[in-house]
Amino acid sequence: MPITPEQQAQIDEQRASPRPTLRAVSPGMEAHLYQAHPVLDHGLVRVIDYMGDDAAITQAARVSYGRGTKSVSNDEGLIRYLMRHWHSTPFEMCEVKFHVKLPVFVARQWIRHRTANVNEYSARYSILDREFYIPAPEQLAAQSTVNNQGRGQVLEGDEAARVLDILREDAMRSYDHYEAMLSQDGQQGLARELARMNLPANIYTQWYWKVDLHNLFHFLRLRADAHAQYEIRTYAETMCGITRDWVPFAYAAFEDYRLGGMQLSAKGVEALKRRLSGETVTQENSGMSKGEWREFEAAWG
After folding, report:
1. Needs which cofactor (predicted)?
2. Does residue 11 contact residue 47 with C-beta atoms inside 8 Å?
3. 236 & 150 share domain
4. In a shared domain, residues 128 and 14
5. d(CA 52, CA 40)
6. Which domain holds residue 91?
7. Which residue, 79, 97, 227, 282, shows the most beta carbons closer than 10 Å to its own?
8. What is residue 207's three-state secondary structure?
9. Are both 274 and 187 inside the same structural domain?
10. How confident is the model over 237-286, as pLDDT tens digits?
11. Which residues contribute to the annotated binding site?
12. 184 CB contacts (<8 Å, ≥6 apart)?
């Protein structure tokens, strides 16, 4: 269960106490405030606070007061121009703070994005809950034979059952030992900061993650991609839905130019021009490596 009844009561109380403000608000984001969006088996994403909206991006781009003087026909057109030409600074005017509950191994991938402010639940101070990520059977897969960091064929039957049993048994056993080692019930035991070393990477942790919109888009471009690991991708996809409601013009431009677009190298541009002129272009005469050529063919045939 992502949240407890006590946490839900706190969320309901917060949402029942609106306050007037003079700052810009996004109706789409207001609907998400404090709401817990379930992810995986015990995880969640919820918005704690945010700043700015689509208008904040265009206001910063024009460096003006209020709506300013419009040098582009409309806000949506300006936002698309900014995204198309990689003018990132105006997107940094918007910020969001998420509360995320996630498995430790996902957190270790996530923290590679070093452009956010993070405060994580402390296992030195508190005892972690007995909650572990156990994949659904359809997410159990063997190592890919073509990608050293990806998944291949899905496990089935007895093999899937064997792996699931190992995951559950190891998680429960390690937590039993964690509890047994702690300094409690009159025994001397280990300090929490030492006892935690025995816990598996699929135990859940929590953090507050605050990031500006430009760096959030960078995170989502990588982690909502079809090639990203499934577990972190589920969080990114949930955050995509929230961001779409928060800044609809900016998200639409991001989806068009980043998520749905692709970047070509100078060699790729030249190869495409040669093809359009009727020339037969192969990997050997394109100047591209085999890997780049495979990616080029995947996109352009």
Report:
1. FAD
2. no
3. no
4. yes
5. 29
6. 5-133+202-259
7. 79
8. strand
9. no
10. 999 999 999 999 999 999 999 998 888 899 999 999 999 999 999 999 99
11. 89, 109-114, 120-124, 196, 212-214, 218, 223
12. none
